[in-house]
Specification:
Chain lengths: ~350, ~375
């Protein structure tokens, strides 16, 4: 075969591939729409289709890029590799951010311009103000407790023989959904009520009555209930803080501690003067992660109290504004406010990233 | 002498540390353990007593009752068996002799006294699998509440929810990983215009809250007729999971030794073949780490499922949340439902803990 016909063959194969890919992608898509009932079959098909069509897509696009003239070939291939991800990110995160921003200046249906009304709402509505206050509580108490407790446990467990088991158990709540955690702690905070021959079935009330106190409907007490909910977050997230900081602590060269001990330092001095400064970057990372988590927190509050009794948080108000009150303008404004709160962390992360020698 | 003192101090501090750790671990595991035990108890027991009563202990058990004469005036101090007390005090219960308590049952008119004695209870507690059966099925279920009334209701069809969770989670884990692996490789080892600004965008997107994206994406899905479908969940979770996936995989792939690629290129391999035959197999630890991460995240997600999937095809989290919303009638089903939602992630977690931790650290340990 001479050069020309080889080239033609190549393009024909390429064309066939493109058609096949499109067929598989779109056909599979429609098929999935229609067999929603047969769950097991559908899942299997979805897995195969998802993997297969993505692989096929990349294969086809790659061949397309490879067949480009030599000068732009390597760039074309790079775009094939990174393109789908970038496009997805644009559709799923970048564009929506801009659109939410636009929506926040419109009215409830997103049709009329209302300028800053939604933002005025976000900063003056009593429920929003309550949410700001609560989120601040979550951020300050929740994060600090997680980090401090995680650090203490990391240090203590380091000195114990059953370290792995202890860390596993403390870390385990991370695998549980927040809804599941809500159920678990609902049983602890349970309140049966007054009456005759009532035995409290909630663990907290049982302990309280055992010591002679009176059982309470804990989650309904304004003020205290926030802290009780924060305890749930601490239960969930301390394991994360502990694991990260534990490995950072283990990375401290033993010679430094030895030298300090020779100089007469005891455990506490070593902890405060050596350990903490050494792992400070890790502490900062963990703190910012949990801080962001406490800002976005939704599930726990929604499941335990639905945001009532003074426990409302920003993410819950966002949900209510959009889906209970149907006001996309106000909801979008709240989302943008959330984003603005996160910007300091974003800036910090970007600065850290620029500092590293990445993408030479 | 100093040696002995030092050793004693060391043993004491070791003991103290061990004790503190034990207390902490107990506090940490008791909540889950409590629900686990409760899920096996009979519904009547759950409403009647705390789960710890399953453990053998000495408690007041009712051993009998009797009636006091009709003429007795409840408004003045009453004498029973030699003890004199007011109505309120009898109501609370008075220990008439060691281990035996009399308590007034009901209101002032009832005149019924119950006898309680301290006995060992908790052995052979009513353990049952009914709660699991009732929450899984979609048909009719009957159970007893605290006062022994029979309640009949439609089952929660949790089995369906578990299937839905699987249907959502597995593709939503696999698809982002593939896409991210390709992108991470490109960022790590290829040159193209816009490489650095694009990657900076990825890093920035790591912390962007979901909430800013939800409403616009919801509008897209409604417009495309995808509302409430599994496809919408896969697309959403892929989008949300990509920043972290790309970041983690980039960290790993960029640390692979350069010579491998050089020799592959020298042998005439295209980037695609290098990727499929070399990079992917070598990146298995990183791929595994992120898979577990994403699996747990998608399985345990509530907000995205609530908004995009809605009521039609509930996953375990939204199904469980819906059960919580009901007025405390079906608490016993809550426990088994909660545990069913936790079994799979817990198994994944304990089985593959190493990879999970490694994945966490890849993004977090600095310095």
């Amino acid at each position: 075969m001479d050069q020309n016909s080889r080239g033609v063959n190549r393009y024909l194969i390429l064309l066939a591939l493109i058609v096949l890919t499109a067929f598989v992608l779109i056909g599979g898509f429609f098929l999935l729409q229609n067999i929603q009932e047969y769950k097991v079959l559908m899942t299997l098909f979805a897995v195969v289709w998802g993997l297969g069509s993505v692989a096929l897509l990349y294969y086809t696009l790659n061949n397309l890029a490879q067949s480009m003239p030599h000068k732009i070939r390597s760039v074309a291939v790079a775009f094939v590799f990174a393109g789908p991800a970038i496009l997805f990110l644009f559709w799923a995160l970048v564009l929506p951010t801009l659109r939410s921003f636009a929506l926040s200046f419109l009215d409830a249906n997103g049709t009329k311009l209302v300028l800053f009304d939604n933002y005025k709402f976000a900063f003056t509505d009593p429920r929003m103000l309550e949410s700001f206050k609560n989120n601040l509580l979550w951020m300050i108490f929740g994060t600090s407790t997680c980090v401090v407790l995680g650090l203490i446990i990391a240090v203590l467990a380091d000195k114990s023989k059953r370290e792995k088991l202890i860390k596993s158990l403390i870390f385990m709540p991370m695998a549980i959904s927040f809804v599941g955690a809500g159920v678990i702690w609902k049983f602890i905070y349970a309140y049966k009520g007054t009456g005759i021959n009532i035995t409290e079935i909630g663990l907290l009330n049982a302990i309280v009555t055992m010591f002679g106190g009176e059982a309470q409907a804990w989650l309904l007490i304004p003020g205290w209930n926030n802290f009780l909910l924060i305890i749930i977050m601490v239960w969930l997230q301390t394991g994360y803080a502990m694991v990260i900081m534990s490995s950072a602590i283990k990375a401290i060269p033993e010679e430094i501690n030895e030298a300090a001990r020779v100089d007469g330092a005891n455990g506490f001095t070593i902890f405060f003067r050596i350990t903490i400064p050494y792992i400070m970057p890790t502490i900062v990372t963990v703190t910012t992660t949990i801080l962001i988590f406490s800002l976005k927190l939704f599930d726990i509050v929604r499941v335990m109290t639905g945001g009532q009794y003074g426990t409302n948080v920003i993410a819950n108000e966002f949900y209510m504004r959009q889906f209970t009150h149907g006001h996309s303008g106000q909801a979008s404004a709240i989302a943008i406010v959330l984003l603005v709160f996160i910007i300091p962390v974003l800036a910090y992360n970007l600065r850290q990233f620029r500092g590293r020698k990445v993408l030479k | 002498m100093n040696q002995v003192k030092k050793k004693r101090k060391k043993t004491f501090s070791k003991f103290l540390i061990g004790f503190v750790l034990l207390v902490i671990v107990l506090i940490w595991t008791i909540p889950t353990f409590g629900v686990f035990v409760t899920s096996f108890r009979d519904s009547k027991d759950i409403y009647g007593s705390g789960w710890w009563s399953v453990l053998p202990h000495k408690d007041l058990a009712k051993t009998g009752e009797f009636e006091i004469p009709q003429e007795t005036d409840p408004n003045i101090p009453i004498t029973i068996d030699g003890y004199t007390a007011t109505f309120e005090e009898w109501r609370k219960g008075i220990e008439v002799e060691k281990g035996k308590t009399f308590r007034w049952y009901g209101n002032k008119r009832s005149r019924k006294i119950e006898v309680f004695e301290k006995k060992w209870v908790g052995f052979g507690a009513n353990l049952t699998l009914n709660n699991y059966r009732d929450v899984l099925t979609g048909g009719k279920v009957t159970f007893k509440d605290a006062t022994g009334n029979e309640i009949s209701r439609k089952g929660n069809n949790f089995a369906d929810a578990v299937l839905n969770s699987l249907a959502v989670t597995i593709p939503a884990t696999i698809i982002p990983i593939l896409i991210a692996a390709f992108a991470a490789y490109a960022f790590a080892w290829m040159e193209f215009p816009g490489r650095r600004p694009m990657f900076i965008m990825v890093v920035a997107l790591l912390v962007v809250p979901l909430q800013v994206a939800l409403i616009p994406i919801l509008r897209d899905f409604t417009r495309w007729g995808l509302n409430g479908t599994f496809v919408s969940m896969w697309m959403a979770h892929t989008g949300f999971g990509l920043p972290l996936a790309i970041y983690l995989l980039y960290n790993y792939i960029s640390n692979l030794p350069r010579d491998i690629f050089e020799s592959a290129y020298l042998d005439g391999a295209t980037p695609f073949t290098t990727f499929v035959r070399l990079v992917l197999p070598l990146s298995v630890p990183a791929l595994a780490s992120f898979s577990i991460f994403q699996f747990l995240w998608v399985w345990n997600d509530y907000l995205v499922a609530l908004i995009f999937l809605g009521d039609r095809n509930r996953v375990v989290t939204s199904a469980l949340a819906a059960m919580v919303g009901e007025k405390g009638q079906d608490w016993h089903l809550l426990t088994s439902g909660a545990f069913l939602s936790m079994i799979l992630p817990l198994m994944v977690f304990f089985g593959l803990q190493r990879f999970f931790v490694r994945g966490l650290m890849a993004g977090s340990v600095k310095g």
